[in-house]
Design brief:
Elements lengths: L7 E4 L1 E5 L12 H6 L9 E6 L5 E5 L4 E5 L5 E6 L4 E6 L5 E5 L3 E5 L6 E5 L1 E2 L2 E2 L3 E6 L5 E5 L10 E6 L6 E8 L2 E6 L5 E6 L4 E6 L10 E5 L7 E6 L5 E5 L4 E5 L5 E6 L7 E7 L5 E6 L4 E6 L12
Parallel strand pairs: 1-24
Antiparallel strand pairs: 2-27, 3-4, 4-5, 5-6, 7-8, 8-9, 9-10, 11-12, 13-14, 14-15, 15-16, 17-18, 18-19, 19-20, 21-22, 22-23, 23-24, 25-26, 26-27
Length: 309
């Protein structure tokens, strides 16, 4: 007997697909050799994030690119550099930060396309391989340091960085593959997708900024990958990309499964997601197998990205 009633199925439609001119069918990459050995990877989309004007920015990890996608689905190249850009977020002051698994936290000038170092080490030691990031309402940065950690090596980390004081705190350091991040509306809980642990962890954020009583918020059923990008709505419901099963799960703040959003493309690598659209109720999802951005309508507004306040 199931503990909860089955989630409601929601369908997606294709918002837009990487244009042929931007597909790198023959271009190799050390990232591809390590993560997709023997495969052709013309693009691998991640990091969806909206700017103030409503354009959607996405990253292409293996080929070191950042794209801007208009509300009409038109693509333009913002940056092409020596890196592996994954998560991307707009700070409330307008700057763009990238979690680059090769270089660390980088800063992007969206006008010139210039990418520069922002936070590349901790006490002169390189990160394992940063993956995703999120800002709180104060502008503090939370980011995951995943690298090749997993169940065999649960040493991934989650950090918080104060941009004003330059203080860097490690919140947890025993993670089996920390990935996507989301804060609840009250900013008292940080959720972390543990890809190779196939779960979402719940990190309470205490008044002094520390964390305690870290636990599992939800355990996904199984598959060849696991929890990837996360997104929060204004009621505290958490959406979780299932990177091996071609879908997004939405859970209530109590961990009850509410919706299963299925990819319409046949691709199974749903990597990350962001709320947008006129009422901020449209969920945009990167599906990396097919180079596609999917969309679906949800009943509740997503939490606003702090770059849009």
């Amino acid at each position: 007997m199931s503990l909860y009633p089955p989630p409601q199925d929601l369908e997606t439609s294709v918002f837009t697909t990487v244009p042929d001119d931007f597909l790198e069918r023959e271009r190799g990459s050390d990232w591809i050799d390590a993560n997709k050995p023997g495969q052709k990877v013309p693009s691998f989309l991640e990091g969806p994030s909206f700017d103030r004007s409503g354009d959607l920015f996405v990253t292409d990890i293996p080929h070191g690119r950042v794209f801007r996608v208009s509300d009409q689905g038109d693509w333009s190249l913002v940056a092409d550099y020596d890196g592996w850009p994954n998560g991307l977020r707009f700070h409330k002051d307008g700057r763009v930060l990238i979690a680059d698994c090769k270089n660390g936290i980088m800063e992007l000038d969206p006008v010139s396309g210039r990418v520069s170092d922002f936070l590349t080490h901790i006490h002169s030691e390189a990160f394992k391989g940063v993956n995703d990031l999120v800002f709180d309402s104060k502008g503090q940065l939370y980011f995951s340091d995943q690298g090749q950690s997993g169940m065999h090596d649960p040493t991934g980390r989650v950090f918080r960085y104060n941009l004003e004081t330059e203080r860097l705190d490690c919140l947890v350091d025993n993670c089996p593959s920390p990935n996507g991040l989301a804060l609840n509306p009250e900013e008292t809980v940080l959720y972390v997708g543990m890809t190779r642990g196939n779960a979402v962890w719940r990190l309470p954020i205490l008044p002094d900024g520390s964390t305690s009583k870290v636990g599992i918020f939800t355990q996904l059923a199984g598959g060849v990958s696991g929890a990837d990008g996360l997104a929060m709505d204004v009621e505290g419901n958490l959406s979780v990309c299932d990177a091996g099963n071609g879908c997004v799960w939405m859970f209530s703040k109590w961990g009850e499964p509410l919706f299963r959003v299925r990819s319409c493309t046949g691709g199974r690598t749903t990597t990350n997601l962001a709320y947008g659209g006129p009422n901020n109720k449209t969920l945009f999802i990167t599906e990396s197998d097919t180079g596609t951005i999917l969309q679906t309508e949800l009943p509740t507004e997503g939490s606003r990205m702090f770059g849009l306040i």
